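Fill-in record for Amidase.
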Amino acid sequence: MTNELFTKSVEELAALMKAKALSPVELTKVVLDRAEASQGKTNAYLDIYRKEAEESAEKAEEEILNGNYRGMYHGIPMGLKDNIYFKDKVTTMGSKIHKDFVPRYDAAIVSKLREAGVIFTGKLNMHEYAMSITSNNPHYGGVRNPWDLNKIPGGSSGGSGASVAVGASMASIGTDTAGSVRIPSAACGIVGLKPTRGRVSAHGVYPLSWTQDHVGPMTKTVKDAAGLLEIVAGHDEKDPASADTPVENYLDKITGDVKDLVIGVNEDFFFNNIDSNIEKSTRAAIQALVDQGARVEEVNIPALKDAQSAMFTFNVSEASVIHMNSILSRPEDFGEDIQGFLLSGAFPSSTAYAQAQRVREQLIEEFREIFTKVDVLISPTLPVMPNNIGEDLVDLNGENVDLLSNFIRLTGPANLSGIPALSVPCGFNGQLPVGLQIMGPEFSESRLLNVGYAVEQMKPLGDRVPGLLGQGDR
């Protein structure tokens, strides 16, 4: 069984743990070995906590053997994105400036994961300060996509996506300001959930844009994401944006039944200028849901035409405030792309910020109106495929287009409006996986997870695995 452990879902591993048929010590050794063995290829980790992880695994084993099983993630090894504060451990934010920063407290989500009995395996690589989508980090080296090592894994949570895809972390937590959970999830063939704004506390997560930052699960399966969300969701008085809304039992609500589900499709924005193979996979998945009893309604969302401009205004303005001292005193210590991004923060005026706020309010209102008519919106997660590491342009049906603006084009509106959005695999384009995005009204995570589970049950990836997972690793 040992060689197969890192290919299993958390749901499968948890059942073995609960039955005392699997030891957290055994599993943790397998995952740590996998992390170290794959590190030279994916560069997913910034630091591996082998000694601490092994000690935590021994403690978890003792607790489980004594009948103190805490739940689904007890004894499960997991790496964390390196902008999430971890007490007494260097937390770099993927930057040179914070290369020696050691938080004095745990992020709220880390505290909850500790309570749940998670084994922390280390900190995961990311795009510098979470400010872009390639994870091509100039200070610690770029993360590579495990399906094709020449390709980007997406970002900014690229280390999280790559590590989960190859079993170097059994699940992870990412942060998402314009798509940074869903983008690498789509690119790496895993599940990524950006919850409703305020559903998961961002206290102790280094900010990018305080009005658009979200925190969410990145996992192999939909049920793994549901179980992880149950742990990290909930009100936190230390986070001003935290919502005091009851946490649901997300796992119990996953049935895969989509009979009478009303799917909203927006052609003008979410299906405009899409890679033809991505579009084909997405529409095939929608049709499969229709075949199971769902129906489709076309919807119109006018505010989407201004969404990307508004999102950029918030991101660049707020990030420039956060990093003002550093960009003025030591600009050379930022990577070239981040330096340019922050210096552009001088351009949005107070008028532009106010106009962006009006766009946000209009988009929120339009989404709320749409969701009185449909249950979910479905679209591709990404309109284009991951490009080669170091390239700024990407192919879109034979035309070279800008990678950054296209990678965040379909994911950004959910950040701007705060609605939940889930990315699940829905097929392949060549050798790389394709992601499908499911959006819904505020606090409809259980609905999104159920629809995502229905897509997952279609086995869109078949038996194919990343190139780093050979036949003998299945």
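KEY FINDING: The domain at 2-473 is CATH 3.90.1300.10 (Amidase signature (AS) enzymes).
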